[in-house]
Specification:
The protein is an alpha/beta fold. It has a single domain, classed as NAD(P)-binding Rossmann-like Domain (Rossmann fold). It is built from ten helices and twelve strands. The protein has helices spanning about 10-20, 40-50, 65, 70-90, 125-140, 160-170, 185-200, 220-230, 260-265, 275-290, and strands at about 1-5, 25-30, 55, 95-100, 145-150, 150-155, 175, 180, 185, 210, 220, 235-240. A six-stranded parallel beta sheet has the order 2-1-3-4-5-10. A two-stranded parallel sheet has the order 6-9. Helix 1 (about 10-20) crosses helix 7, helix 2 (about 40-50) runs parallel beside helix 4 and helix 6 crosses helix 8 (about 220-230). The longest helix is centred in the N-terminal third of the chain and has 22 residues, at about 70-90. It starts with a strand and ends with a helix. It binds NADPH dihydro-nicotinamide-adenine-dinucleotide phosphate and dtdp-4-keto-L-rhamnose. Dtdp-4-keto-L-rhamnose binds near residues 151 and 246.
Length: about 290
C-alpha cells in the first residue's frame, strides 16, 4: 500500500516515521515544503501520481493562543485543507486518517469522559477550526477515520512536557492550572496505534470518529508535578492555580477527558497509562539532552 503522511515533521508525523520504519508498505512523508495541504491541485497530483491508498493527516495549526489572533490562517489549515484532503481521498478511493482534538469539547458541569457522539462545543478558535475540519470531512463523503486525541507530547518540537522540564529546572516557583482536566498522550503511543491499524489492514469497514489518549485523568497541575518528579527537578515549587490566575486569550475546556472504549473495542488495542508513557518520554529527553 502507498501511504501519504502530511505534516510529517511535526510531533505525530515524526513519531509515525519511527513507528513505520520497518514496514513493507511505502510511506511518503511530506511536510509543507514537499506538499502544502492548502494547495488543492498539489494534493490531488500527489495522491494520483503516487497511487495513494491511505492519507494520514498530521498537519495542523496547533498554536492555541495564536489562533485567537489568526483565525483565518487556522481555519485554512485545520478546516479548508482537511476538506481538500478529503475530496482528494474520495476521488482516488483512498482512506483519510485525520487527527482531531479534545478541544472540540468545551466545559460543562459534568465529569464523565466524552464519547464520540457527544455534541461538539469548542470554546476557542483552534477548537472551532478543528470542528470545522471534521465537518468538512464528513460532508465530502470520503472514507475517513477521524481520531480525536489530547495533550500530545513527544521528544520532538515544542510541547508541554519540554516546556515544563525547562521551566521547573530554571524557575524557583510555578503556578499551574488545576481546574482543566484531561489526559496527556505520548505521540509515540498514538503513532504506534495508527501504524498498527494500517499494518493490520483494519482501515476498511471501520470508518468513523474515535477517541485516543493515554489512559487516566489529570489536571495540567498534576501533569506538571509528575514531569518535575520524573525530570528530577526538586528545587522548583509548583502551586495549583485557577485558570483566571494564568491569563490567556483562550478559554480552554475545563474537562476534556476522552472515552476510548470504542477505539479499544474496534481496533483491539491496549492503551498505556499516561504516567508510564510520560516516564519513557522524560527518560528519552534526559538521555538525549534534547531540551
Ligand atoms: N499538539 C497537541 O497537543 C495536540 C494535537 N492534536 C492534533 O494532532 C495532530 C498532530 O499534532 P502535532 O504533531 O502536535 O502537530 P505539530 O504542530 O507538531 O505538527 C504539524 C506539522 O504540520 C506542518 N504544516 C503546517 N502548515 C502546513 C501545510 N500548509 N501543509 C503541510 N504541513 C503543514 C507544520 O510545519 P511548521 O511547523 O513548519 O508549521 C508541522 O510540521 C494535529 O491535527 C493536531 O491538531 C490533537 C490534540 C493535541
Ligand atoms: C506554561 C504554563 C501553562 N499553564 C497552563 C495554560 C494552559 O491552561 C495549560 C496548558 O498549556 P499549553 O499552552 O501547553 O496548552 P495548549 O496549547 O492549550 O494545549 C493544547 O494544544 C492543542 C494543540 C490541543 O489539541 C490540546 O489537546 C492541548 O494539548 O497549562 C499554566 O497554568 N502554567 C504555566 O506555567
Amino acid at each position: 500500500m502507498n501511504i501519504l503522511v502530511t505534516g510529517a515533521n511535526g510531533q505525530l508525523g515524526t513519531s509515525l516515521r519511527k513507528a513505520s520504519a520497518s514496514s513493507a508498505d511505502r510511506y511518503i512523508f511530506t511536510d509543507v515544503a514537499e506538499l502544502d495541504i492548502t494547495d488543492a491541485a498539489a494534493v490531488e497530483r500527489m495522491v494520483s501520481d503516487n497511487g495513494v491508498d491511505v492519507i494520514v493527516n498530521c498537519a495542523a495549526y496547533t498554536n492555541v493562543d495564536r489562533a485567537e489572533e489568526q483565525p483565518d490562517i487556522a481555519e485554512r489549515l485545520n478546516a479548508t485543507a482537511a476538506g481538500i484532503l478529503a475530496r482528494a481521498a474520495k476521488k482516488a478511493g483512498a482512506v483519510l486518517i485525520h487527527i482531531s482534538t479534545d478541544y472540540v469539547f468545551g466545559g460543562g458541569a459534568g465529569n464523565t469522559p466524552r464519547n464520540e457522539d457527544e455534541p461538539m462545543s469548542p470554546t476557542g478558535v483552534y477548537g472551532v477550526t478543528k470542528m470545522h475540519g471534521e465537518q468538512k470531512i464528513e460532508a465530502s463523503g470520503c472514507r475517513a477515520i477521524v481520531v480525536r486525541t489530547a495533550w500530545l507530547y513527544s521528544e520532538y518540537g515544542r510541547n508541554f512536557v519540554k516546556t515544563m522540564m525547562e521551566l521547573t529546572a530554571t524557575r524557583p516557583q510555578l503556578k499551574v492550572v488545576f481546574d482543566q482536566c484531561g489526559t496527556p498522550t505520548y505521540a509515540q503511543d498514538l503513532a504506534d496505534a495508527l501504524f498498527a491499524i494500517i499494518e493490520r489492514r483494519m482501515i476498511d469497514g471501520n470508518e468513523g470518529v474515535y477517541h485516543y489518549s493515554n489512559e487516566g485523568v489529570c489536571s495540567w497541575y498534576d501533569f506538571t508535578k509528575m514531569i518535575a518528579a520524573e525530570a528530577g527537578a526538586s528545587s522548583c515549587r509548583i502551586d495549583p492555580c485557577h485558570s483566571d490566575e494564568f491569563p490567556s486569550k483562550v478559554v480552554r475546556p475545563s474537562y476534556s477527558v476522552l472515552d476510548k472504549t470504542k477505539f479499544k473495542r474496534v481496533f483491539c488495542q491496549e492503551i498505556p497509562y499516561w504516567v508510564d508513557s510520560l516516564k519513557k518520554c522524560v527518560a528519552n529527553l534526559k538521555n538525549t539532552d534534547q531540551i
